[in-house]
Design goal:
The chain has a domain of about 250 residues: Rossmann fold (3-Layer(aba) Sandwich), CATH 3.40.50. Helices cover about 40% and strands about 15% of the residues. It has 18 helices and 15 strands. Helix 2 packs across helix 6 and helix 7 packs across helix 8. The chain is globular and about 70 Å long. The chain starts with a strand and ends with a strand. Keywords: Membrane, Transmembrane, Transmembrane helix.
Length: about 500
Amino acid sequence: MGATQYYRSQIGEESVIDYSHTDFPFKLLAKDVYYFFVYVWALPWVIWPVYPLKCKVFDELYPSPQNVFCVVVHLVLFFLQLGFIIALPFSIVFPVWMAATGIAGFMFTNWLICKLLNGSKETYTSDEKYAKDRPEHAHEQWVFLNGVAVGEHWMQSNLNRLALTFGRPILGIHNQTRGIIFDVVECLIQRNFGYATGDVRICFRLLKDILYDESKSKVIFVLHSQGGIEGGLVLDWLLQELPQDLMSKLEVYTFGNAANHFNNPHRHRSSQMLARLKPLSAMSTVLTESSFDSPSSSPLEAKDDLALKARNPVRKESSGVSTRSISAAKDRCILHVEHYANSTDFVAIWGILHFATNRMESRELPRFQGRLFSRADGRHGGHQMNQHYLNAMFPLKKDAATGEYVGADEDNEFMNEAIKVGEEGSASANAREAFEISWAGTQGFGSGDASTPIEVHGISNTIKEASDDHGIRVKDVSRLWSYRNGRSPVELPPMLVSENGVPRTATL
């Protein structure tokens, strides 16, 4: 059985420089074009391997009539767009009005063909037969943002597969396709120029409304491929605009992430320093915030209060007080971020694996926060959401009697793989969280993983026993796995810390 490489989340110290998305756009674009050719060897793995087709009803490349139609339309779009790009430089020899008319005519034709794939809706929901609403999940909202080249049919297939795997209805925000080549161009514009296209703006509006919904205390945001770029831009906007208590509802999980950055800052400098210098103290330290509702917030209101007191002597001057306590180890704006990537997936190599792993031993480590599971297994090394990621990492189980899929398979090869800490340059060693904080993930504080053998000092007996027994496995530290088949991770109250399996109170 192979080992899955794991990269702990960045802490965000001085050694982490935001060059990856704050540098000059054309410089970033030139780097992207250069690394496209560096990693071009992996391009076939966007669709490879085609076999085996484990879940035919969900697999994108299974030769069903709907899938064949989608592939044929994409091939037509690919060759039309390739011809358009080759011919575009020659338009300079034509009058401006003629060149502009030709370009406009082609773009309109491209839009019409894409309508065959996209449909007309902004959002979709998973079919009820795959997952029904349950009272215990009423406080949750699962949201999926798709990747490149996904039309209406593949979008619905992704939603149904996720719903069956995690036992919850899934809301899909459709990132509509414009054809493979134009989608890649759109990715470059979004990634390097930080430009929010229409899909990003729609997603921001919808996700913001969900976070403001008082009936939802947990929002699970699942991203794939280009959805990682768009989702990252949406998170940047949300971090700027929304109150922190609303952002704490979010959990983010990505597959084959194509983004060049992913922000999730600490909320306090003190917790950031503890996570780097004293990880065990960070786990047992509780930060408490108090907020006061002042009776007057401006001189004008104070004058109004004086006038009101004469008419309403019953009014009290007492202020409302609210408090919030949280472990310093999880004192981030977004409590949980996990990334899953195949090490031979071209999009992941060009995206998250390039920007998050710092293999070039540079002190200028890009800002890409969240824990990363990188699977080195060529049998499942493609980019398709259902066929290559979910089939490999969250395979389904069939009912022996009916032959129907009934949910995630508990006997999961990927989840049983031992974890190995990803190799990086020594410059980034201190820029990542300690393994103790990663391990605490499935005990109520996050998620993460480690090495085989494990070399961490001051670690709990629980981790030592697990390491001695079978090594730390992916399932031991994957928070997303704890949601399978309608389950939920064990959540401790924010003021409690688990010590040897016993919750206790800790103070700053």
